């Protein structure tokens, strides 16, 4: 979940400012936005902001008359810091050595189950809050359900980018609408599951710094996937894509003994390749979320997405356990360090910190500031991950001069694209 690990995360944020203003007061809470659509955020939170409709209110904020841009920026800053904890947490677990480190299937199953539990609790708390603040004690469960339906109607009325007539035939797959929220959530959940598995497996085999910057290649892949689906973007977005591509190329060449950048990709580790594939899948998931969130309540989508992810992750763990038994090994070999309380705290960091608290902070912040400002702040999460990596080990922060130039290019991609949206 980085987003997992990469989060994750996450995304229905393109509808946050629309829902926040739907009652004309500018003060409504953006419903259960923690984990709202849950885990794409690590790779795609800034890119989700990029795909928002252009409804920003100037340069300062996107909320109503009572919005506080400074407070909104602090919320998003806190979200970026929390997302920076995810990769170091996973690397801490994987560096414990064979016999003590958990398998990727264990990490995925535990984190998705915890995220689903957090979403249920936050959803319940949100509905209780709406009962007490919207209509007093007399508000019934039916009234709360009616408000959920209002969310869906508000999302459906949000400005949507229609596929162009010149879109590629493959866009029929990327733009297909779902007949039910369950099917829509299932589709999003499958994409997120694949992306999450790739993210976790990647961080098992690459360092924190390389992984967190490479997964930011979603800044390049998201507009490409959206363009295949028929959406159109201004020139700055494509300049951002080029910056991200060049940055990824330089990072991959950082540890190469060859001086030729053209051979850089031959030096990518298996972990790097998994991370890059995860960036592609998070981009597909982000575009899918935006498509379905126009027709269904994002909170409901989040429930079905996390249910799908939890189920598929549990099946992955079950398959892994069966394979372990067939090899004559004991089940505890899947995670020899499960008896240590600290390890449980670390493995739950992504679910409780970034996915839940971080996503809620981002949603709250984006209801008060423009998506362009949000994107720039959210792009800093790899820097925080690099800082927290010092708690794991010095090698986790290693990135040579060429790599840091590439990292700067990747971070610049989000900034360039966001500047292009501020009109």
Cα gyration radius (Å)? 21 Å
Helical fraction: 55-70%
Number of domains: 1
First-to-last CA distance: 33 Å
Largest sheet: none
Structural class: mainly alpha
Q: What's the total number of strands? A: 0
Beta fraction of the residues? Answer: under 5%
N to C succession of SSEs = HHHHHHHHHHHHHHHHHHH
* Overall residue-averaged pLDDT value: 75
Shape: globular
Low-confidence stretches: 2-43, 53-61, 155-167, 256-263
Helices, by number, come to 19
Q: What do these coordinates show?
A:
The radius of gyration is 21 Å and the shape is globular. It has 19 helices and no strands. The protein is mainly alpha-helical. The chain has one domain (2-421). The protein has helices at 2-5, 16-20, 41-50, 69-83, 86-94, 104-134, 141-157, 171-174, 181-204, 208-214, 218-228, 235-253, 270-292, 298-326, 341-347, 349-366, 371-378, 381-388, 401-421. The model is unreliable at 2-43, 53-61, 155-167 and 256-263 (pLDDT under 50).
Summarize the structure.
The protein has 19 helices and no strands.
Write the layout of secondary structure elements.
Layout: H1 2-5, H2 16-20, H3 41-50, H4 69-83, H5 86-94, H6 104-134, H7 141-157, H8 171-174, H9 181-204, H10 208-214, H11 218-228, H12 235-253, H13 270-292, H14 298-326, H15 341-347, H16 349-366, H17 371-378, H18 381-388, H19 401-421
What descriptors fit this protein?
single chain; 423 residues; mainly alpha
């Amino acid at each position: 979940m980085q987003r997992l690990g990469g989060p994750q995360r996450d995304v229905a944020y393109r509808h946050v400012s629309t829902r926040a203003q739907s009652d004309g007061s500018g003060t409504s809470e953006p419903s259960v936005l923690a984990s709202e659509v849950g885990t794409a955020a690590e790779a795609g939170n800034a890119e989700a902001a990029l795909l928002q409709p252009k409804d920003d209110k100037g340069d300062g904020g996107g909320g109503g008359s009572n919005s506080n841009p400074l407070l909104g920026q602090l919320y998003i800053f806190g979200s970026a810091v929390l997302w920076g904890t995810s990769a170091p947490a996973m690397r801490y677990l994987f560096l414990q050595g064979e016999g003590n480190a958990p398998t990727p299937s264990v990490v995925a199953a535990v984190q998705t189950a915890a995220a689903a539990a957090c979403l249920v609790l936050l959803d319940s708390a949100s509905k209780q809050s709406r009962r007490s603040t919207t209509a007093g004690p007399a508000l019934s469960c039916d009234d709360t359900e009616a408000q959920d339906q209002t969310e869906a109607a508000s999302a459906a009325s949000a400005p949507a980018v229609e596929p162009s007539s010149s879109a590629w035939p493959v866009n029929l797959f990327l733009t297909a609408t779902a007949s039910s929220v369950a099917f829509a959530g299932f589709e999003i959940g499958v994409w997120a599951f694949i992306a999450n598995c790739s993210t976790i497996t990647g961080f098992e085999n690459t360092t924190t710094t390389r992984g967190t910057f490479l997964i930011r290649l979603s800044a390049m892949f998201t507009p490409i996937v959206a363009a295949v689906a028929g959406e159109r973007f201004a020139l700055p977005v494509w300049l951002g894509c080029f910056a991200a591509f060049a940055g990824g190329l330089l990072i991959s060449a950082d540890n190469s003994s060859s001086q030729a950048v053209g051979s850089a990709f031959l030096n990518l580790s298996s972990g790097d390749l998994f991370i890059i594939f995860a960036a592609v899948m998070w981009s597909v998931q982000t575009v899918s979320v935006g498509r379905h969130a126009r027709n269904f309540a994002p909170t409901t989508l989040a429930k079905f997405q996390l249910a799908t992810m939890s189920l598929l992750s549990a099946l992955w763990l079950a398959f892994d356990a069966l394979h372990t038994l067939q090899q004559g090994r004991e089940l505890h070999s899947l995670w020899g360090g499960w008896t240590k309380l600290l390890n449980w705290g670390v493995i739950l960091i992504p679910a409780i910190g970034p996915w839940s608290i971080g996503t809620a902070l981002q949603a709250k912040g984006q209801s008060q500031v423009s998506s362009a400002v949000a994107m720039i702040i959210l792009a800093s999460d790899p820097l925080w991950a690099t800082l927290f990596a010092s708690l794991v080990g010095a090698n986790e922060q290693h990135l040579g001069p060429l790599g840091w130039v590439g990292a700067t290019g990747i971070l610049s991609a989000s900034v360039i694209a966001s500047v292009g949206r501020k009109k």
